[in-house]
Amino acid sequence: MIDARDSQALDVAKLYYNSHLSQAEVAKCLGISRPTVSKLLQHAHDQGFVVISINDPREHSDELVRELKERFALADARVVTTPRGGNLMQDLGAAGAALLEELVHDGSSVGVSWGQTMSAVAEHLRQLPLEGVKVVQLKGGHSHTQRSTKDFATLQGFARAFNAETFMLPLPVIFDSAETKQWVEKDRHIAHIVEMGSHVDVAVFTVGAAARESLALNLGYLSEEETQLILERAVGDVCSRFFDAEGCVAVPEVDARTVGITFDALAARPTRVLVAGGSEKTDAIRVVLEKGLATHLVIDHNTAQRVLTGV
Hints:
By secondary structure, the chain is α/β, with parallel strands linked by helices. The chain has 2 domains: about 45 residues, Winged helix-like DNA-binding domain superfamily/Winged helix DNA-binding domain (Arc Repressor Mutant, subunit A); about 250 residues, Rossmann fold (3-Layer(aba) Sandwich). It is built from 14 helices and 10 strands. GO terms for molecular function: carbohydrate binding; DNA binding; DNA-binding transcription factor activity.
């Protein structure tokens, strides 16, 4: 049975919680004092009229990690939760950096891709007192447009953090012809760096979605016809090698002109850290994981759920 005090408490609670008025505004609206408003709100809680529920995805992260590790045979997975209005890229970068700091040791060779996600990882790496570390660029990074790959800054960020020697590929990632690419790769310095990239201890990379606005499709490497072909066939790219829904090379004629680590060479690396997130990359991430290209994963909570449920 609701009495007069219950009824007044309900009125106060609705104005405060549903209409988002302050306690002072509620007091003025109902012609009562502010202390009375506070007491009535407490009464509403005590009577069970008001129930506050906080849905914190972090409470479910452990289960997500377990599912990701089991389904994709991962050595480790890190799931980040970005609050509304937060910066997903920075959160992924911070988590990716924290994981790498556990995996890189004295004498390690680290292969690094480029892109916004890799740039964020580099920004969050702390300087560690390591010795004998080598940082190797896994693919060419020169751009033919105003869009920057941030490849040099990313490589330097890794080098500073790990006190490492750097090995950079000062080349476009996709050449105009396979013949030119093959000719350039015969240079002994270039061949040495490509070979080093294929034998790194730790490879850290991201996944790009095959979308019109993606960085890989806007660096001036491709004709409009080639871009359209990629959009029709591919779901994403790893190290600028585009793959289809089955994890196979999507456009062989473009892949033959691409400078950088191959899928097979990447899959053979002992430690392969994938840092990627965002709903637009869901399909691409799922294919990469199913293909076994990653041993370690850093991903956001929402995308992890989508990858697991197939949404």
